[in-house]
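FAQ: What does a multi-protein file look like?

Like this. Sequence, then tokens, then the next protein.
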Amino acid sequence: GRRLKILALVDDFTKEALDLVVAHSICGEQVVRILDAVVQFRGYPAAVRTDQGPEFTSKALDQWAYKHGVQLKLIQPGKPTQNAYIESFNGKFRDECLNEHWFEDLAHARKEIANWRQDYNEVRPHQSLNYQTPAEYAADHRVTENEEDKQNKVD
């Protein structure tokens, strides 16, 4: 079969897997479209940390980041510890999902990976999140932010 490329979008703060995009190839323009979809429900991040892959060093992503005031943080080649959480996430994802399935086709891979992502976000508590799931922690954080915004409007 053909190789799969998976773009993992993970929030460093909430530990949520915002998306796991599965394709045979992913270019910079696709990364921009994926980020545009994610910001519709999450807003723009202050920064995006990536490796030095061609999809992340593209003109399209650079222009997107500049236009939206997002800092691009490219880790140094051969320095995965500069992006330690995603490396840990990728290891879990590889061990628990990718190594456990023989994908028949792209649709099958997308289905199994989406199921794993849902379990990761909604079922598994994380010690670093005070034993909440990433989805619970993110929801609690959004509630706190909304309450603070309302309080600031009253003051």
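And here is the next protein:
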Amino acid sequence: SSMDRRMFGTIASPQIAVLDEVSQELKLTDQQVEKIKDLTDEMMEEFGELFQQSGGDFDKLGRNILKLQSAIHRDLLALLEEPQRKRMQEIFLQVNSGCALTDESVAEEMKLTDEQKDKLSKAMQNSQQKLFGMFGSFATMSEEEQKKKADELIT
């Protein structure tokens, strides 16, 4: 779900771009789609490596994932023609709402100050810590207790 993928920032732009509706809207060529799929594979490999290297330090992991996602987003935009780039940026913002502001290319475009970026980063980390706090105890619960807790959190 999108909530799972947002635990460490945005839903990555290559994952959005290869959705049928998006690739059709962007009028991606078969060659572009293949390159974007390669980018997605590379990103997933690097996510795995970052997770292993984090040693359970979720703040460090979150920061490193945001850096990786920004780099991958720039790589994706480099594969696109100008009209495709503009529309992809709009779709990226639409899908990721406030989380998109943590992406370096978006922050540059929005001309965010260092102070604003810092405040956003702290707000995101606070949100992540709350999420981990809510879900951290799930591992020790029975399936029935997990379902009950999930229902409480949703309603």
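Q: Is there any per-entry metadata?
A: Some entries carry free-text notes. For the entry above: The two ends are 18 Å apart (CA to CA).
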